[in-house]
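queue> holo job accepted (magnesium ion)
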Amino acid sequence: MKQKINSTVNRIRLNKVHRLLKKVNVYSEEFQLCSDIELQAKAESFKVMLSESKMTLEQLLPEAYAVVREASRRVLGMYPKDVQVMGAIVLHQGNIAEMQTGEGKTLTATMPLYLNALTGKGAYLITTNDYLAKRDFLEMQPLYEWLGLSSSLGFVDIVDYEYGPGEKRAIFEHDIIYTTNGRLGFDYLIDNLADNLENKFLPDLNFAIIDEVDSIILDAAQTPLVISGAPRVQSNLYHTVKRFVETIDDEDIKLKKSKKEVWLTDKGIQAANKYFNVSNIYDEPYFDLVRNINLAIRAQYLFDINLDYFIQNGEIILIDRITGRMLPGTKMQAGLHQALEAKEEVEISKDLSVMATITFQNLFKQFDNFSGMTATGKLGEEEFFELYSKIVVQVPTDIPIQRIDYADKVFINGEDKNSAILDAVVAYQNKKRPVLLITRTAESAEAFSATLFQMDIPNNLLIAQNVAKEAQMIAEAGYLSAVTVATSMAGRGTDIKLDKDVHELGGLAVIISEHMENSRVDRQLRGRAGRQGDPGSSQIYISLDDYLVQRWGDGKLQNNQILNDYDSNSLENSRVFQHRVKHSVNKAQRVSEEQGAKMREMANEYEKSISIQRELVYAERDRILEMIQSDDFNIDKLAQDVFEYALNKEVHLTQESLMHYIYNNISFKFEGKMTSIRTQSKEAAIQSLMHQFHEQMAENKQKLKNDYFYVNFVRKAILKAVDSGWIDQVDNLQQLKASVGNRQNGQRNAIFEYHKVALDAYDEMVIKIKRNMIRNLCQSMITYDEYDDLVIHFP
Ligand code: ADP
Ligand code: MG
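queue> job finished
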């Protein structure tokens, strides 16, 4: 039923796309007759029409796409097919184009990139790794050049490259940029730490197309980009709290494992109060204690050794839950990693404070418009719509798909399953049919590969280590007799072309050693075979030992006595049993998917506060930079505001309190001519403070020698206050999230609570920033280094 509605909806959407396609096709013959010069001149005339508002992008689309198409034929020797033009239309509309592997998404993207770059505001193609960005850029660059648009890779492809002044800005001045989500995210954060307008390099983000969009904005959405700063003051509570957690029992906590939630029950709170000898751990002074208790119970109950992390050489190594790969060097934020370390009694590492952070979801929301392409969009449609208001349009393949997707093969345990997988590989190998065996973890791929070698079957092992090398290896997976063992992420984005003789043998055979965390990934893997109407097959093997069942299964089937009473052979042949295992695996996968979606939704909810605040702070920062540049920044007004606010809080103005204020905020050297401070009225007192302020600034100005240094000094002092305030705030919010996340007790709505506290903290931050601006202006030490460059020591 649902399927039927889906396909009807998709047909309606495609009809609209079709109408536009026809308009594109109208130009085909005409442009074929055009000279190169005529076609190349089109970009300029399009730009003029746009800038004079004679045409909109929508009106230009058919002609512009037709130009790119004809140009592609002449320059690249490929003429974009109707289905590619359809995909290109969906992309311009800011939606998700589902196009199968091998349909030519790289070429498809050139049409909307060209069209949107005509505005002069920049167009981005964003993909998952440097290798793919560079590959696609190099392949398409000649086309853009011919068409009269400039294009560039968004980074210099040299490890640890140090960019010279202005170099990044020059990169981002190109019309079309190819880069990765990670690179762009860091660029965005770094750009907003620039202490000078000249050091800013990133233009306003206009239009982006995200390749493999589901893996970037759904799967990777939970791992935010983080720029770390100084080590945080380390809590010494990890061990103490851990000992408390070891004393509690099931009634002290409420555990919703499938939702990754755990919190103290009333009984647990009582126990904690008693253990720590406090009246109520939720009272204000125990904020840090509660935070640590929450971290410790999460570490204890929600993270399983060998499923979520390993211990290696006395260190906790996280495991990527989607790929099963180890993630050395990756740490969980805000103390959770340290809580895990305490749980496992390994040495507790430094918790670094967060200087700047953004999730990919919010990064892409910075664009005026973005769209995405992927072979597996439909299964993520609900989320695309909920999080980004984007629909998924399934673009038909150029030639019908011939691949056979077999039903799952069922086994009781992993051992039986693995030997059946090896048998299957051998059988294909005997017929010289190429086979691609895909596993969830690198360990498992390594084990299969080694066993195959022992059986004298040469094979290529790909475990997502060297992207470029693996791209080359996977491209060979379609050769006669090829055996390739790979993890799910290895070699992605690379087309597997078949040897001529392989077609008759049935094409590439894909064997998948277990269902992945998410059915989207399953589909992606099946799609490794059967590109562009090639023959091929895919088959998933399952057993009750599979990760999904272990992680998310309800355990009913595993604990069933029947399993022990029957021999595995007859069970595995029983239809009823097969059915039940399939059901069990499917259900575990559904739980896993729901869990993933829920986590992303939560992350998104939490991210709202920080994202609104980030935008406000970054905008204000830019405003300040511009004002200082143009000498519009009114320091007096700022000082006046700050002093007014400070004095408003004083009930009694005394000479002493004012002296104190001056020492702390304006001048160390105030010599205490009491009579010069007037306390008769608030206005008078403010005037006194302003007087002190002006004297101090005059003194600074003298030390600063000239206007250039003076402006520099003011800018740095002001920005320093903004940045320190914001960095503290980011770090605070990060910690607050960790503490509030589990405070569901007492009917409190954790997210509501979080936003409320976050908002209060924002107001406080603004006040603090202003106060620190004055303090930085007044109380910084001004010196010069041996090259006579200004050095400022902030108070
Ligand atoms: P996808 O990203 O959709 O999996 P690619 O962009 O990697 O596919 O393209 C797959 C292959 O098809 C590439 O070798 C590409 O050069 C080729 N190709 C794409 N479009 C065309 C076309 N219109 N005509 C001929 N070959 C094409
Ligand atoms: Mg691709």
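queue> The chain has four domains: 2-224+361-394, 233-350, 404-595, 627-793.
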